[in-house]
Design goal:
Blueprint (H helix, E strand, L loop, with lengths): L2 H11 L3 E3 L5 E2 L5 E2 L1 E3 L8 H18 L5 E5 L4 H11 L3 E4 L12 E2 L7 E9 L3 H12 L3 E10 L3 H9 L4 E6 H10 L7 H10 L10
Parallel strand pairs: 5-6, 5-8, 8-9, 9-10
Antiparallel strand pairs: 1-4, 2-3, 6-7
Length: about 210
């Protein structure tokens, strides 16, 4: 079976991706969403965790074979970066959301040398803003950021455009579309709900998908 379909099945099974098109969630921004994603649940499921981390390792070997260091995003990407780095026998560290207010006031934790080739490990890509901030922080310290690996991406055009403009390559293990199709195939959602989900993905601020 395709790796993306395996990961999609795990995400649905453990409730890491939760679809509710008939009763949307409300994001902090006020946007009505038919999906809720909590990839932290992966860490507490051994089968899902093993498949995700080994898929990360294979994706990095394939797309970023020159990787020298893995850097997790704080906080969701830290554990995934650590486990994947262990599988690959690579050093790892992580990037804080902001500088510490004490000690050495580090933002980047772990040893990072100028010119080192880094892959960022992230759990979720939506608009891409937080991941790009991490990439920029690493670049400011002289790192050569090869790209990002993430578990799940919504595939929102806004996120795609942001990553492209920042010259950042993202490789996700599974996409929103694949998980939606898997949910319909298993009867988790109705077949006709897939088009609603895709309409939301295409333009989250347009709530007309709820009336489709």
């Amino acid at each position: 079976m395709d790796v993306s379909k395996i990961i999609a099945a795990h995400l649905l099974r453990i409730g890491a991706v939760f679809f509710r098109p008939q009763e949307p969630f409300t994001w902090a921004s006020g946007i009505k969403s038919p999906v809720y994603c909590d990839n932290r649940l992966i860490l507490t499921d051994v089968a899902a965790r093993n498949d995700v981390e080994h898929a990360f390792a294979e994706a990095i070997k394939l797309h970023f074979p020159e990787a020298e260091v893995l850097m997790g995003t704080s906080t969701a990407g830290i554990a995934h970066a650590a486990i994947t780095a262990d599988i690959m026998s690579l050093p790892m560290g992580y990037v804080r959301s902001g500088n510490k207010d004490h000690g050495r006031q580090n933002r980047i934790e772990g040893k990072l040398l100028p010119g080192q080739k880094v892959v960022v490990v992230e759990d979720l890509i939506s608009t891409g803003g937080s991941a790009i901030e991490v990439v920029e922080a690493l670049r400011e310290e002289g790192a050569q950021v090869l790209g990002i690996v993430s578990i799940f991406t919504y595939g929102m055009q806004k996120g795609i455009d942001k990553l492209e403009s920042a010259n950042v390559k993202n490789v996700s293990l599974v996409t929103f579309d694949v998980v939606a199709e898997a949910a319909a195939e298993t009867g988790y959602i109705k077949k006709e709900d897939v088009q609603k989900l895709i309409a939301f993905r295409n333009n989250p601020s347009d709530e007309s998908w709820m009336e489709a």
